[in-house]
Amino acid sequence: MPYDARLADRVRILLLPLEGFSERKMFGGVCFMLHGNTACGIVHDLLIVRVGTEKYADALRQQHARMFDFTGRPMTGWVQIDPGGTDTDDSLAFWVRKGVDTACKLPPKTPKSTERSRHMD
C-alpha cells in the first residue's frame, strides 16, 4: 500500500514555509525534514512523529498515538498517529509541530547529506 498522498500534501502545506524543509521518499513512505533532521513522515495512512526521548511517554498518552514499530522493535522517541488523530487541520498541526520542535533542537546535518529537492513527486 502506498503512503497517503493527501495526508502528505496536508503536511507539506504546514512545512513548506519553514527554512530548511526537505522531503525524501523512504521505505514506501515519505519523510519530512528540517535541516536534514526528520521531523515526521507518513507510512501507509499513519503519521510518524519524532517527539524525542524526553517527551516520548507524554506523547504516548495522547489520544490516537502509539509506539512506532516499523522494524519489529519499537523506536523510542517516535510515535505513530492513527488516522483519527490527523483528521482535522488542528490535530494534524498539533502533531507536526511536535516533530518540528524536536527536529529543530538537533544540530543541522551537513549540506551534502541534505541535497534533495523541496518537493519530490
Specify the number of helices.
3
Q: Strand portion, in percent?
A: 25-35%
* Strand order in space, largest sheet: 1-2-3-4-6-5
The run of helices and strands is HEEEEHEEH
Describe the protein's topology.
Elements: H1 5-15, E1 21-26, E2 29-34, E3 37-43, E4 46-50, H2 56-60, E5 65-67, E6 78-81, H3 89-104
Helix pairs in contact: 1-3
Give a short summary of the structure.
The chain has helices at 5-15, 56-60, 89-104, and strands at residues 21-26, 29-34, 37-43, 46-50, 65-67, 78-81. It is an alpha+beta fold and 121 residues long. The protein has a domain at 5-88: Aspartate Aminotransferase, domain 1 (Alpha-Beta Complex), CATH 3.90.1150.30.
Your description of this structure?
The protein has 121 residues and is α+β, with helices and mostly antiparallel strands. The protein has a domain at 5-88: Alpha-Beta Complex (Aspartate Aminotransferase, domain 1), CATH 3.90.1150.30. The protein has 3 helices and 6 strands; from the N terminus they run αββββαββα. The protein has helices at residues 5-15, 56-60, 89-104; strands at residues 21-26, 29-34, 37-43, 46-50, 65-67, 78-81. The protein has a 6-stranded antiparallel β-sheet with strand order 1-2-3-4-6-5. Strand 3 (37-43) and strand 4 form a beta hairpin. Helix 1 packs across helix 3. The longest helix is centred in the C-terminal third of the chain and has 16 residues, at 89-104. The radius of gyration is 13 Å and the shape is globular.
Descriptive keywords:
disordered C terminus, Aspartate Aminotransferase, domain 1, 6 strands, 121 residues, alpha+beta, six-stranded antiparallel sheet
